[in-house]
Amino acid sequence: MKILPPSYRATECLVNRISLQGRRRLAPVRTLASQAVCVRFLSTVTPSGTRKLADDKVPPPGTTAPRKPRIDLKPGPVKPVTLGTDHSPSHPLSKPTPRSSHYHPPRHLHPPKPFRIELSAVELAKRDIAEASQQGVLEAPPADAGSFKRVFHQALQLLKFYFRGLKAINTHRKQVNAIRKRVESGGALPTRAEVRFIQTFKRDAFKLVPFMVVVLIAEELVPFVALYFPRMLPSTCVLPGQRDRIAFKARADQLGALYRNRGAYEAMYKDGECAGFIQMHGLKDPVAVCSLLGLSAWGPSLLAAWRIRRHLKIVAEDDDLLRGEGYGRDLTIRELNEVLSERGMIPTPERRSADDLRDQLRWWLDNTEVVPQGADSVSRRLLLIGLIGSQK
């Protein structure tokens, strides 16, 4: 064995120490280089020509992945499906199916509040004119107008409004004649809107002469007429505020009759419940029926019975038109309220939406569609009016 000198050993140790220090310095650089390579590998975009297999399983944006059906660990017995009023088919039918919870006439639990107007007739007239001016029905007076000029301007605008209303009645007469000529020549039958238009024109033409007398003699009496005798005003000569007040008062009167004559309606429904109809000659209290239908109740019983028969015949024709035009699906809330009011139904505050009103109308149309043996359109509807009045 060859023994190295001490100087050579010291030199070898120094070389080994230097090489170790060099390795320690290079190690961090190599680590940083490997990290840079990893970052570069992760941030590199995959070419569009190559698709990963995992991307095929990701659904496109805007779509939801189908859920697995939920498994009931404790299933109960399956109830058999029965066809009744509560059953709604999965496919829409030609005849709309009402909701079971609303398949009954409106039921009022609390008596109505009395209809009271705290303002005088002059103050009501001023408010109606102001509302009509805001809605653009009447031209507003100038901002710098004095008291006398303002009153004169409002009186002049009212005269113009009534003159335009009377002129509109003549225009409606020409339109009604055009509809009648079309039908007589073999054209299309009138729609429900045209039938209602003709009925409104007939009422306006009947009110034309007395209203012209009131306007020419004392124009300031028109607000009193609108307040106490609303049936004297033609539909074309009513301000928006007056129209709303007339409708509200009519519904209040119908609700008052509903609670005041409930005993008569219960007896009326009890008499015809077994047969499914009530004959007109067997009606014991025709005045109470007139009040519920919103008809004039003055005069003897024979006159009241004549009004009921005429009104229900018009309602029967309107029912046929409503069934043919989608059961009132295109009617507005105002029109639905008017239709229900003509049938003695006043919606409750909890059921005033368009769907609720249509459900109540469907109840009436479904129950009047089938007429029992020995009944007619009037007698069948009299039974439903008794049911509505009895609040059952």
UniProtKB/TrEMBL annotation:
GO terms for molecular function: ribosome binding. GO terms for biological process: intracellular monoatomic cation homeostasis. It is found in: Mitochondrion inner membrane. Residues 101-112 have a biased composition (Basic residues). Keywords: Membrane, Mitochondrion, Mitochondrion inner membrane, Transmembrane, Transmembrane helix. The keyword DNA damage does not apply. It comes from the Eukaryota. This is Letm1 RBD domain-containing protein. The keyword Thylakoid does not apply. InterPro entries: LETM1-like_RBD (IPR033122), LETM1/MDM38-like (IPR044202). It is a single-pass membrane protein.
